[in-house]
Amino acid sequence: MPTTAAATASATAGDVHERDWDGVRLHVVTGKGGTGKTTVAAALALALAERGKRVLLTEVEERQGIAQLFDVPQPGYDEVRIANGLDGGEVFALAVDPKAALLEYLQMFYKLGRAGGLLERFGAIDFATTIAPGVRDVLLTGKVYEAVRRRSGGRPVYDAVVLDAPATGRITRFLDVNSEVAGLARVGPIRHQADSITTLLRSPQTAVHLVTLLEEMPVQETLDGVASLRAVGLPVGGVVVNQVREPILPAGRLASAAKGKVNRAEIGRGLQAAGLGHAESDVDVLVTEATEHAQRVLLEQRERQEIDALARPVYELPARSELVDVGTLYRLAELLREQGMA
C-alpha cells in the first residue's frame, strides 16, 4: 500500500477520492522493459473511467499489449470500446500505426486522397517513416494529441487519454518532438503540428508517469528518465513501484539474516510444531531462503530510498504470482484509485 504523503488517499463514504492528477488529460506511462508499464497503463485507464467518463488507452509500439491484457482483438487505427471502467465509465483502445498516421496527415494537409494509397503501394510511406524517425514520432504523438483535443458538442470526446509510451530510455526523445524535427522541418504544417504537440506535452494537462521495480537497473533508468524529462521541460508525474513484496522477516532480523545468521534451532522447532518432520537438509534450504529473502528486502529498501528522493508521488502495486488477466487489471485499478492516482 502507499507509503508517501502524496499517495495516501482512500475511498470515503461518499466515494470521493483525493486525486493527485486532477486537471491532467494526457497520462503518459513509461518504464524500463519488463517493469509492467503496459499493465499499469491499462489499470490506470480503468481507474480513470468512472461515472460515465470516457478514457482512451493508446499504444504506439505495435506490440499488441492491449489486446493481450484485455483478451480482445488487436485494436486498429479506429478507436474501439474494450471495457467498462470501475464504476460506469468506458475504456476505448487505439493502436497508432505510423503508416496510417502519415496517410491521414497527407490527406489532412495536402488532400492527396487516392494518391496517398499509391505512395503506400510503392513503399514511399515505409521509406518516409523509417528514414526520418523524428517525423515518425511527430505522427505518432500527433494522433494522440488529436484524441486529447477532439471535441463533440462543445465538450471533449475523451475525459482522459492514457498513452502506453516507449520505454524510459527513449521517452524523452519520443516526446521532445520539436527538437527531433528541428533539422527536418523549420516551417510548414509538420513544424506547426510539432509546436502544437509540444505545447500540450509541456502543459499542466500532461503528466509522464514512470513504472519501476525495486531493482538496481530499473531504478537507475527511472532516475535517469526523470532527469532527462526535467531537462527538456516535460512534466514528470508519479512513480509506480510494481511487484512490491511484503517482508516475511521482522525488520530487526533483516540485517543479521542477510549475513546468514539465522537461528537453525528455531527453524527446527517451527517445523516440528507444524507437524513437519525435518532433516538438517530441510533446515539448510530454509536458512538459504531466509538469507536470500533478507538480502532482497534490504536491496529493495535501498532502491526505494532512491525513488523517494525524487520527491514525486509514489504508488505501489503488489507482487503477483498469477498471469495478468482482466480481473487482475480491475484489482490493480482499484489500488491505484485508493492511492490517489486516479
TrEMBL record:
This is ArsA-related P-loop ATPase. Residues 26-181 form the ArsA/GET3 Anion-transporting ATPase-like domain. Signal peptide: none annotated. InterPro entries: ArsA/GET3_ATPase-like, ATPase_ArsA/GET3, P-loop_NTPase. PANTHER family: ARSENICAL PUMP-DRIVING ATPASE ARSENITE-TRANSLOCATING ATPASE, ATPASE RV3679-RELATED. It comes from Angustibacter luteus. It holds the Pfam family ArsA_ATPase.
